Amino acid sequence: MILLPLELLSTDIYTKYVFLCKLFLKNRLKKCNQDILDYVEEFQDFSKMVLSRLSGLNSYKTEVKDEVENLLTRVERAQRDIDYFGSVRDSKMCVEVDEDLVKQQLLEEAEEKRNLKSCCDHLLASVKSLKMVKKTGDKHGSWMKDPGKKHTKIYLLNGTVNNVIFEFPNIMTFMESNHTLKARRVILPFPWEGTGHIIYQGFLFYHRHGSLNEIIKFNIQKRNIVDRMLLPGAGRIPAYQLSPSKKIDLAIDEQGLWAIHAEPEIGGNLVITKINHITMSVEHTWDTTCSSKDAEAAFMACNILYVVYNFPSGGTSRIQCAYDVLGTVNTYEIPVLHFPKRQGSHSTIHYDPKEKQLLAWSDGSQIIYKLQNQQKA
């Protein structure tokens, strides 16, 4: 556009000239605004692309981390198997031994097998009846006896995160209305997580709150921690879909201490670990065929895992998956076992190998289920 001196322009020409200048500036401003809008749109698209790439990198990082953790878990299991086979191989080496000592060891081993068979020669036939003992505490919690001791004490652990144990001298005291006033309180140095703890031979075994898979062994009478361990592969997903606060479920049966958890690498199925309660070490691990989906609890009885299922909205609980770690029972032939008709759900079910009964926590109620067993074939 050519600019002319104002004195050379007439009034009409001046008016048209000003109009054209304004029109020119308006078009330039409009184009400038459009360029800015195009730039902002391009920048937004670029930002979205960068954020998408970063999100993909974070997802890939998580996948790599999970794969590494899974690999470490498998390597640890493989190392245990290698150590086991190595010990078996070493035991087969030809060495000179005392014949009387060998005979004595064979007799002791035979006696041990007879005892094992005599104390574990049954499987669950039905959940026969229930007894409502009391209604106290939160919706979730656990209560139990110590099957490893001769006393009749009752222990109450309320909530999914807490650090106070209530110890009652007997079940009659526990059933009283002012029961907490007569209870001995034991304070833990670290709170528990979930409701999968267990008491055995004077010790509380529990999953420490805030940890992935640390199990603590706590002496109840001396009130101190005596040992701890990490449970490989556990703690990443809930053990049971309908009990999301419980990542590790500890159990006791005639053979001692067990741990139950779920692993994503096997489709969320349950994994059983036999733990030496004295040394706090893993003895063996089994990947089961029982799913954690729609499961609310489980318990071990006579080397068999029984998994309890329900509906998300609550209903009649049922045992519809079992797994025998010794393989002596065809668990697929065990029928679905329904609990006595009672609508609700369970946050905890513990097996008492001494009384052969279940102690359960259901919506704040403490329940005892009587069991009917049958001889193994």
TrEMBL record:
Superkingdom: Eukaryota
A Pfam cross-reference name: OLF
Domain Olfactomedin-like: 118-375
Gene Ontology cellular-component terms listed: extracellular space
Record-linked InterPro entries: Olfac-like_dom, Olfactomedin-like_domain
Swiss-Prot/TrEMBL keywords: Secreted
Cellular compartments annotated: Secreted
GO BP annotation list: signal transduction
Protein name as it appears in the record: Olfactomedin like 1
The organism of origin for this protein: Meleagris gallopavo
